[in-house]
Amino acid sequence: MPKIIAARVVVTSPGRNFVTLKIECEDGTYGLGDATLNGRELAVESYLTDHVVPCLIGRDAHQIEDIWQFLYRGAYWRRGPVTMTAIAAVDMALWDIKAKLAGMPLYQLLGGACRTGVMVYGHANGETPEDTIAEAQRYKALGYKAIRLQSGVPGLASTYGVSKDKMFYEPADADLPTENVWSTEKYLRSVPPLFAAAREALGWDVHLLHDIHHRLTPIEAGRLGKDLEPYRPFWLEDATPADNPASFRLIRQHTTTPLAVGEVFNSIWDAKPLIEEQLIDYIRCTAVHAGGITHLRRIAALADLYNVRTGCHGATDLSPVCMAAHLHFGLSIPNFGVQEYMRHTEETDAVFPHAYSFADGMLHPGEAPGLGVDLDEGLAAKYPYARAYLPVNRLEDGSMHNW
Ligand code: GCO
Ligand code: MG
C-alpha cells in the first residue's frame, strides 16, 4: 500500500494567499490539495496541521473514501467551511496520489472524458457598459464562448467585481475589509441596459452571465430575472443569500432566467433542497470548499437526477490545484455546465506549474498523471502570507448589507 509518511501545509502569497496540503507516501509519491479559504486561510492551516495531519500518518493513501468518512463522521463537528476545506485538501491530494500511481490523468480514473474540453467563462468588467462591452469583445476575440458581465453602478463610488486590473484583478485587496456603499435601486436600474447593449454589440452566439453576489431580496431578484429575459442570460448567480432555500421558490415563480448558486456552500446538505425542488439550474459548489472531489461528485450525481448542471466557482482564490481538480471532474461528469475561469497571475502560475491549458474557450486538464499540478516550494517560500480581506458593503444609510 502507498503508506502516508508525512503531510504538511504550505502557505504562500504569490499575489494572493494560497494554502496547499502536500501528502507524501513511503515510495516518494506525493499529492497536492488546495486548502485556501479566502480571508480565513490560517484557520484551515491550523485545522490541518494541528488536527488532521497527525491522523493521516501511517494510513493507506489508496483508501480515499474511508479517510473522507473518518474525517467527516469522526470529527463530531460536521460541516462548516473550515472543516470541509480541510477535508477537501486531503481528498484532492489523495486523488492526485492515486492517479499518479495509476499513471493516468485523474479524469481517466473518474470514468474518462465525456467531452472534448471544459467550457469556461471569463470576467468582463468595466466602469461603464461601454468599457465592459469592450472587455467582453476582448474575451470573445480570445475565443471565449461564455462571458460574465459586471459594470460599475452609476452613482456608486465602487462596485465589487469591477476593477482597473481587468483580467488579473484580485478581489481580496486590503489587510482590513474595505467598506463599499451599495444601493439596490441604482443597481437594478443599471443591469438591463448593460445586457441590452451587450446583445447588440456581441450578438447571440456567446453566453452572457451575471453575478449578483447575494445582494437582492427574492422579489427584487425575480424582477431582475424578468427584466433580463429578453437578452437570454446563461445564468443569474447568487441572486439572494441561500441560507433560506425557500427564497428561491419566490424567484422561480417570477422568472425563467436560469439561476446559479452555491459558491459558499460546503456540503451536499446546503444544496439538497435547491436541487430536489429544481429551484436552481446550476450548482456552483467547489472541490476546495465542499469536501473535495469525492463530495463534489456526490453533489453532481444528485444534481444530475434533477437536470441541474455544474458551474463551479473558479475565482483567483481557488488555487491552480483546485482548478485542475475542477477540470478533471468537469471533463468526466455527465452534467457539466460551465467552469468559471479567472486567470491567475504569472507569479501564481510560476509557483504552481500545471498541465492544464486554454484553447477555443475551453480548458483541458492535460495528460500528466494525477492532477497535473506541482508546487515549487522554493519559490513559494519567497512569498510570505499577507493578511487580505474581501471588501464588505453597507447601504447608503450605513446599514451592513449582504454579501
Ligand atoms: C465569483 C465570486 C468571487 C468571490 C470570491 C470569494 O467569482 O463568482 O463571487 O468574486 O466573491 O471568490 O472568495
Ligand atoms: Mg460569485
TrEMBL record:
Pathway: Carbohydrate metabolism; pentose and glucuronate interconversion. It comes from the Bacteria. Pfam families: MR_MLE_C, MR_MLE_N. The keyword NAD does not apply. It catalyses: D-mannonate = 2-dehydro-3-deoxy-D-gluconate + H2O. Residues 129-258 form the Mandelate racemase/muconate lactonizing enzyme C-terminal domain. One of its GO terms (molecular function) is mannonate dehydratase activity. SMART domains: MR_MLE. SUPFAM superfamilies: Enolase C-terminal domain-like, Enolase N-terminal domain-like. Its cofactor is Mg(2+). Its EC number is 4.2.1.8. Catalyzes the dehydration of D-mannonate. Has no detectable activity with a panel of 70 other acid sugars (in vitro). This is mannonate dehydratase.
